[in-house]
C-alpha cells in the first residue's frame, strides 16, 4: 500500500528528516516499508519555454524542428506534436530527467537531427491519462513566466511515498487509511495529531440535513453479513472532473481518477480506511435499499464489466428488482455514477470479514474494498466516513442539497462493548526487560488514543473501538504497544533467566530418530517432507482411489483440497520431479496419513515410507534388504509374507493398479499386515513420465511407536578364524518369487551357515538367474575343505529338490 507523506502532513507535522530515515523509523515502530519513492522531482526540472521557430524536419514529413527559449538560452528539439506553434508557451524537459512513464531523456538523434530534450504533454508530465499534443501553458495560465519550473507554476509540492507491505498491516485495520498512519507518525515523532473530526465538525455537517423525508430507506434482512449500514441522499450534484490536487493524490497512491464523485469515494476510503459506494439514485428502483442473502444462483455484472456467478448465501445490496452491489467487494455496472447523474445515494457499511474473504476468494476478485473488509473494520467509524464524504461533495458541489437525514439499519451499535484492560507499569517493564517511566507510557498510550485511568501501580487502559477489532485484546498487547514505540532495538538483549534441563524424548521420538539415523547413515537416503494436502488431479494421475476420505471445506486450491490417506501419491509426485535430474536416488519420510472416522471424525496414522529409484535396474532387492535391516536395527519383530487373499495388506490397497505383479512382499508386524514392500507398475510410472524403476516400502507405526522397544542387541567378540563364502546361481521362470528360493534353504541344519542372501538377479527370455551367496563361519576353528564341499553340496541338493536347479 502506498502512503503519501504530503497527505500525512494534513494531520500531523512530519520532521525534516531524510525520506529513507522516516521509512526506517516507521518500519521499526509500526509496519515494514518495502520502498521509499520520490514524486515530483521531474516537475522541478521541467520549465516554461516559448516557441521561437518551427521548421519541417528535412527527413520526415510529420516531424518539426522546434527552436525555443527559457528566457536565457535557446534550445532545439525534434517534435511530432500537431499543435506546436510559434509563440506558444509550453513545458520543456531537459536531458537527464526521468518522466513518470519511466522514460529517461538522453542525447538522441531523430532522423539524423540531435534533439536536446522534449516538449511535454500533460500525459508526460503525469497530469493526465492521455493527451493529444504538448501542453499549452498560455491557455492554462495568464502569461506564465519563462524559466519557471512546473512545481512553482502549479503551486505543487514534491512528495515522498512509502510503499508499506500489506501483510504487515493484516492485524491493523486502522492503518488502511492515511489518518490512521498519521496517528502513528504523531506517536513515533512525538508530534500532536491534528484531528479535524470532532463534535463541532460533525454538528456543522449535520446542520446541512433537511427536514424532508429521506427519499431512500434501508432494510437489512436477517442472515446477511451486514454489521451496519448508513445511507444519505444528496441532490443537485454535478459530475465532472476532480480538482487537480485530488487527482494528483489519487494518482500518487496508484488509483486512476474517474470523475469528482467516484474520486471522492476513493479519496475518503484512502484517507479514513473505510470503503464506501455512491449510487446514482435514479437507477435504483423503488424507495428502499435492501441488504439480503441470495436465495438462488445469480449472474451479476460488476463495475469492471465482468459477468460473475453469485451463489445462494452471498450478501448483496439491491433494490426492489435487482442486485446493485456485491457486499464488501464491488458495485454493479447498473447503478454506478455517470456524467448524467444528478441525484446520489451515499452508502457506508460494514460487513463480516470471513464472509467477504470467502466470496472474494471464490470469485477470484480482490479489490481495495475487500482487502479492507477482510481485516475486520470498526462499525463505529461508519458515520464519520459518511460525513467526511458529504463534506467533500458539498465542497466540490456548492449547489448540492442534502435530502432528509442519515438513514441506518443493522445491529444496534450502542451495544458494542468497549474494551478495557488492567495492567501496571511494573508488569510492562518486566515483560519488556527495560525500565520505561509511567509518564512516558501515558504519553505513548494517549498519543495512540488509548486513555489511561489510574496510577503506575494499577491502571485501566480504555482501548478505542477501531483498535479493538482483533487487535488489542490482552495485557500483552499493551506491552507490544510500548515496546514497538520505544523501539525493540533499544532493549538490551539478555539471556533468559530460566533453569535449562534436557528434554526427555518420548518412545515415538526415539524410534523416529533411530530410523532417520539408520536411513541416512546406512542406507544413504535423503529425508523428504511431502504435503499432507493433495488434490484429485494427483490421485487420478496415480490411479489411486480416495475412498471418500477427508475433504477441506475452504481449500486454498484444488491441488490441496484433500487430506492424504496414503504417502504413495505424494511419493510418486516427488519421484517424478527428482527423476528428471538423477539416474538413481533414495528418499524416505516419517509422516502422517488421515482417515475418516465415524467416532472421532478423523484417525491419524504415523507412517514410515521409503522410495528407491533406479533408471537402469529394479531397486526392489536393495529396498527389501534396507527395510529388513532397518526393522532389525530398531528391534521391530516382523515376517516377510507373500500375497495371500485371506490376509490383505493394511499399508496399501492390494487392488491398486500401481502394484507390480511379482515384486511384492507383505510385512507382518506384531501379527498385523502393517507393512509392505513393492515395486510400482510401469503403467503408473508412465502417467508421471518416470523413466526407470521405482520401489516403495511402507510401515504403519501407529500400533507400536508409543511403546518403548526392548534392546535385543547381543555383543560377541569378532571371529578369530576366517569364514568362507559359497555362490551358486539357479535358473527359474520370471514368475518365481525370490523369497521362495530363500525359504527353501531356511530349514537346512548346518550350524556354521550364518546367512544366505541374494547377490544378483539377471532376467532373460522370460527366465531369471538368481545368484545366492551363502556364508559359513566357525568361531572356534578354521573350516576344512571337506566341510565346505559337503555343505555346498547340501545347499545345491536342497535347491534342486525344491525345484530350483543350478544354471547350466
Quick structural overview:
The chain is α+β, with helices and mostly antiparallel strands.
Separation of termini? 80 Å
Radius of gyration: 39 Å
| Unreliable stretches covering 5 or more consecutive residues | none
Q: Total strand count, please?
A: 36
> What is the makeup of the main sheet?
7 strands, mixed
- Broad shape: elongated
Mean pLDDT, rounded to whole units? Answer: 91
Strand order of the largest sheet: 25-28-29-33-32-31-30
Tell me the structural class.
alpha+beta
The amount of helix comes to 25-40%
Please indicate the percent range of residues in DSSP E strands (runs of 2 or more): 25-35%
Tell me the number of helical segments per DSSP (H or I, 4 or more residues long): 23
Task: Characterise the protein shown here.
- There is one protein chain.
- With 808 residues, this protein is of the alpha+beta class.
- The protein has 23 helices and 36 strands.
- The strands form ten sheets. It has a seven-stranded mixed β-sheet with strand order 25-28-29-33-32-31-30, sandwiched between helices. Strands 5-4-3-6-9 form a five-stranded antiparallel β-sheet. Strands 11-14-17-18-19 form a five-stranded mixed β-sheet, with no helix packed on it.
- Strand 3 (47-57) and strand 4 form a beta hairpin.
- The chain is elongated.
Keywords:
808 residues, alpha+beta, 7-stranded mixed β-sheet, 5-stranded antiparallel β-sheet, 23 helices, 36 strands, elongated
Amino acid at each position: 500500500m502506498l502512503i503519501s507523506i504530503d497527505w500525512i502532513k494534513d494531520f500531523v507535522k512530519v520532521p525534516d528528516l531524510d525520506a529513507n530515515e522516516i521509512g526506517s523509523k516507521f518500519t521499526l515502530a509500526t509496519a515494514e516499508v518495502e520502498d521509499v519513492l520520490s514524486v515530483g522531482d521531474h516537475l522541478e526540472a521541467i520549465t516554461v519555454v516559448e516557441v521561437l521557430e518551427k521548421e519541417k524536419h528535412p527527413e520526415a514529413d510529420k516531424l518539426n524542428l522546434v527552436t525555443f527559449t527559457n528566457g536565457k538560452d535557446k534550445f532545439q528539439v525534434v517534435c511530432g506534436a500537431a499543435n506546436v506553434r510559434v509563440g506558444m508557451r509550453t513545458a520543456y524537459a531537459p536531458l537527464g530527467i526521468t518522466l513518470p512513464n519511466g522514460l529517461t531523456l538522453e542525447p538522441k538523434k531523430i532522423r539524423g537531427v540531435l534533439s536536446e530534450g522534449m516538449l511535454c504533454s500533460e500525459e508526460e508530465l503525469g497530469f493526465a491519462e492521455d493527451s493529444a499534443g504538448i501542453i499549452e501553458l498560455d491557455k492554462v495560465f495568464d502569461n506564465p513566466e519563462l524559466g519557471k519550473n512546473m512545481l512553482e507554476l502549479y503551486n505543487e509540492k514534491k512528495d515522498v511515498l512509502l510503499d508499506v507491505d500489506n501483510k504487515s498491516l493484516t492485524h491493523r485495520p486502522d492503518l488502511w487509511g492515511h489518518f490512521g498512519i498519521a496517528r502513528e507518525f504523531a506517536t513515533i515523532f512525538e508530534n500532536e495529531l491534528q484531528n479535524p473530526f470532532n463534535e463541532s465538525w460533525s454538528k456543522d455537517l449535520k446542520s446541512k440535513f433537511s427536514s424532508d423525508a429521506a427519499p431512500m430507506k434501508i432494510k437489512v434482512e436477517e442472515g446477511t453479513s451486514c454489521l451496519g449500514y448508513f445511507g444519505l441522499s444528496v441532490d443537485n450534484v454535478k459530475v465532472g472532473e476532480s480538482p487537480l490536487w485530488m487527482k494528483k493524490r489519487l494518482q500518487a497512491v496508484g488509483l486512476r481518477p474517474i470523475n469528482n464523485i467516484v474520486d471522492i469515494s476513493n479519496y475518503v476510503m484512502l484517507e479514513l480506511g473505510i470503503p464506501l459506494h455512491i449510487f446514482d439514485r435514479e437507477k435504483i428502483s423503488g424507495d428502499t435499499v435492501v441488504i439480503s442473502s441470495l436465495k438462488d444462483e445469480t449472474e451479476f455484472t460488476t463495475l469492471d464489466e465482468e459477468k460473475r456467478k453469485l451463489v445462494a448465501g452471498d450478501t448483496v445490496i439491491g433494490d426492489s428488482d435487482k442486485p446493485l452491489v456485491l457486499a464488501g467487494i464491488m458495485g454493479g455496472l447498473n447503478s454506478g455514477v455517470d456524467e448524467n447523474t444528478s441525484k446520489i445515494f451515499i452508502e457506508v457499511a460494514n460487513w463480516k470479514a470471513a464472509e467477504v474473504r470467502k466470496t472474494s476468494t471464490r470469485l477470484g476478485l480482490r479489490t481495495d474494498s475487500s482487502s479492507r473488509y477482510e481485516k475486520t473494520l470498526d462499525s463505529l467509524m461508519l458515520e464519520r466516513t459518511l460525513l467526511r464524504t458529504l463534506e467533500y461533495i458539498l465542497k466540490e458541489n456548492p449547489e448540492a442539497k442534502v435530502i432528509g437525514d442519515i438513514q441506518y439499519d443493522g445491529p444496534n451499535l450502542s451495544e458494542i462493548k468497549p474494551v478495557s484492560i488492567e495492567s501496571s507499569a511494573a508488569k510492562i517493564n518486566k515483560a519488556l526487560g527495560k525500565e520505561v517511566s509511567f509518564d512516558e507510557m501515558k504519553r505513548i498510550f494517549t498519543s495512540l488514543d488509548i486513555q489511561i485511568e489510574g496510577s503506575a501501580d494499577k491502571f485501566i487502559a480504555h482501548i478505542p473501538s477501531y483498535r479493538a477489532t482483533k487487535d488489542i485484546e490482552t495485557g500483552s498487547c499493551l506491552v507490544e504497544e510500548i515496546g514497538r514505540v520505544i523501539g525493540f532495538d533499544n532493549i538490551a538483549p539478555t539471556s533468559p533467566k530460566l533453569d535449562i534441563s534436557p528434554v526427555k524424548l518420548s518412545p515415538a521420538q526415539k524410534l523416529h530418530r533411530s530410523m532417520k539415523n539408520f536411513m541416512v547413515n546406512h542406507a544413504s537416503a535423503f529425508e523428504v517432507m511431502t504435503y499432507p494436502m493433495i488434490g484429485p488431479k494427483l490421485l487420478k494421475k496415480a490411479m489411486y482411489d480416495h475412498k471418500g476420505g477427508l475433504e477441506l471445506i475452504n481449500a486454498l486450491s484444488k491441488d490441496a483440497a484433500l487430506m492424504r490417506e496414503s504417502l504413495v501419491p505424494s511419493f510418486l509426485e516427488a519421484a517424478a520431479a527428482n527423476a528428471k535430474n538423477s539416474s538413481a536416488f533414495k528418499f524416505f519420510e516419517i509422516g502422517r496419513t488421515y482417515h475418516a472416522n465415524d467416532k472421532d471424525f478423523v484417525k491419524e496414522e504415523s507412517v514410515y515410507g521409503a522410495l528407491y529409484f533406479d533408471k537402469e535396474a529394479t531397486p526392489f532387492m536393495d529396498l527389501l534388504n534396507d527395510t529388513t535391516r532397518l526393522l532389525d536395527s530398531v528391534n521391530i519383530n516382523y515376517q516377510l509374507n507373500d500375497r495371500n487373499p485371506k490376509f490383505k495388506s493394511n499399508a496399501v490397497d492390494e487392488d491398486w493398479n500401481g502394484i507390480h505383479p511379482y515384486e511384492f512382499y507383505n510385512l507382518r508386524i506384531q501379527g498385523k499386515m502393517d507393512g509392505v514392500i513393492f515395486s510400482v507398475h510401469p503403467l503408473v510410472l508412465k502417467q508421471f513420465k518416470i523413466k526407470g524403476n521405482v520401489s516403495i516400502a511402507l510401515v504403519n507405526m501407529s500400533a507400536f511407536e508409543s511403546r518403548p522397544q526392548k534392546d535385543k542387541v547381543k555383543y560377541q567378540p569378532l571371529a578369530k578364524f576366517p569364514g568362507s563364502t559359497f555362490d551358486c546361481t539357479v535358473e527359474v521362470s520370471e514368475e518365481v518369487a525370490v523369497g521362495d528360493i530363500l525359504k527353501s534353504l531356511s530349514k537346512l541344519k548346518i550350524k556354521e551357515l550364518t546367512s544366505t542372501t541374494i547377490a544378483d538377479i539377471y532376467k532373460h527370455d522370460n527366465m531369471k538367474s538368481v545368484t545366492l551367496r551363502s556364508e559359513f563361519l566357525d568361531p572356534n576353528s578354521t573350516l576344512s575343505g571337506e566341510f565346505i564341499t559337503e555343505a555346498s553340496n547340501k545347499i545345491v541338493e536342497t535347491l534342486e529338490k525344491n525345484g530350483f536347479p543350478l544354471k547350466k
